[in-house]
């Protein structure tokens, strides 16, 4: 009992201090993390940093804070930091070999952020998928498809593939092919098609409107129409033109043997 009493008297204050320090670290972690993250966001957005880069840096900062707190706890507990780092390095090598494929994804994410082939909110087509870019993490990029599906593409695969950024420019060209019976008047069809696209409010009038007879197939005459519109009007314009051409053909008595299709 005497030995136990001496042990408690000798180490109780030290243990109590360590517990207090650990509790203080625990209590301060969330406020420190939130302040650091909000401060970084404020600085980056003030400098108009791309949202994709922000979404990549925030987890990096959070990971750094966790590591900093972890090492503080190790030091408070009185463990040999150098020995612990050596053990951690050995474990990291084994884990790194097991997860070596993920390093290409991390490198791919960094490459995407540096080269900036797209930004948050862009509609892209890549790796057999298409959707709006939401954010980029260490390992993958997240897209939302047109029907609101979540698509996850590994950064390594994305950085080494061809990427089409559909919304990179403010204007897009809409291309159509329409068919009429071979007996139709080419001039009449061209006039109807021209009037349809010219009168649509989303068609840019300062851009060339292309309406031409293309060729004659075994059963129909083929016409090509090309117009320009703002990228946000592209989908609605395609549907509107298809509908209005059908109505105009019916009014003018132009036979429409095949449905038009977008190219």
What this model shows, in words?
With 263 residues, this protein is an alpha+beta fold. It has three domains: 2-98, no CATH class; 104-165, SH3 type barrels, CATH 2.30.30.60; 171-262, Alpha-Beta Plaits (2-Layer Sandwich), CATH 3.30.70.100. It has seven helices and nine strands, in the order ααααββββαββαββαβ. Strands 4-3-2-1-5 form a five-stranded antiparallel beta sheet. Strands 7-8-6-9 form a four-stranded antiparallel beta sheet, with helices on one face. α1 (2-46) runs antiparallel to α2 (51-76) and α6 (186-198) crosses α7. It is rod-shaped.
Distance between the termini: 90 Å
What is the average of the pLDDT values?
Answer: 82
Number of strands: 9
Which range does the strand content fall in?
Answer: 15-25%
- N-to-C SSE series? HHHHEEEEHEEHEEHE
Enumerate the spans where pLDDT stays under 50 for 5 or more consecutive residues: 258-263
Task: Name the strands of the widest sheet in spatial order.
Answer: 4-3-2-1-5
Overall shape: rod-shaped
Structural class category:
alpha+beta
Number of domains: 3
Q: Count of helical segments?
A: 7
The rounded Rg comes to 31 Å
Question: Major sheet, described briefly?
Answer: 5 strands, antiparallel
Helix content: 40-55%
How do you describe this structure in short?
With 263 residues, the protein is α+β, with helices and mostly antiparallel strands. Helix content is 54%, strand content 21%. The chain has a five-stranded antiparallel sheet. The protein has a four-stranded antiparallel sheet with strand order 7-8-6-9, covered by helices on one side.
């Amino acid at each position: 009992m005497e030995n136990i009493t001496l042990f408690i008297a000798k180490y109780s204050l030290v243990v109590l201090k360590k517990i207090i320090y650990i509790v203080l670290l625990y209590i301060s972690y969330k406020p420190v993390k939130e302040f650091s993250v909000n401060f970084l966001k404020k600085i980056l957005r003030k400098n108009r940093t791309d949202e994709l880069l922000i979404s990549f840096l925030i987890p990096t900062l959070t990971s750094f804070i966790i590591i900093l707190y972890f090492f503080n706890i190790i030091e408070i507990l009185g463990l040999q930091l150098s020995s612990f780092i050596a053990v951690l390095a050995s474990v990291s090598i084994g884990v790194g070999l097991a997860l070596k494929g993920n390093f290409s994804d991390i490198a791919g994410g960094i490459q995407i952020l540096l080269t900036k082939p797209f930004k948050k909110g862009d509609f892209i087509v890549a790796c057999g998928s298409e959707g709006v870019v939401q954010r980029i993490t260490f390992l993958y990029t997240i897209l939302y498809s047109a029907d609101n599906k979540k698509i996850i593409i590994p950064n390594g695969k994305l950085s080494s593939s061809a990427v089409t950024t559909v919304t990179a420019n403010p204007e897009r060209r809409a291309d159509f092919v329409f068919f009429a019976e071979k007996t139709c008047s080419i001039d009449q069809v061209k006039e109807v098609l021209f009037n349809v696209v010219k009168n649509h409010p989303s068609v840019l009038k300062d851009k060339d409107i292309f309406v031409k007879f293309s060729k004659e197939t075994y059963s129909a005459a083929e016409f090509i129409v090309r117009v320009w519109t703002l990228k946000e009007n592209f989908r609605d314009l395609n549907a509107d033109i298809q509908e209005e051409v059908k109505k105009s053909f019916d009014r003018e008595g132009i036979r429409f043997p095949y449905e038009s299709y977008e190219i």
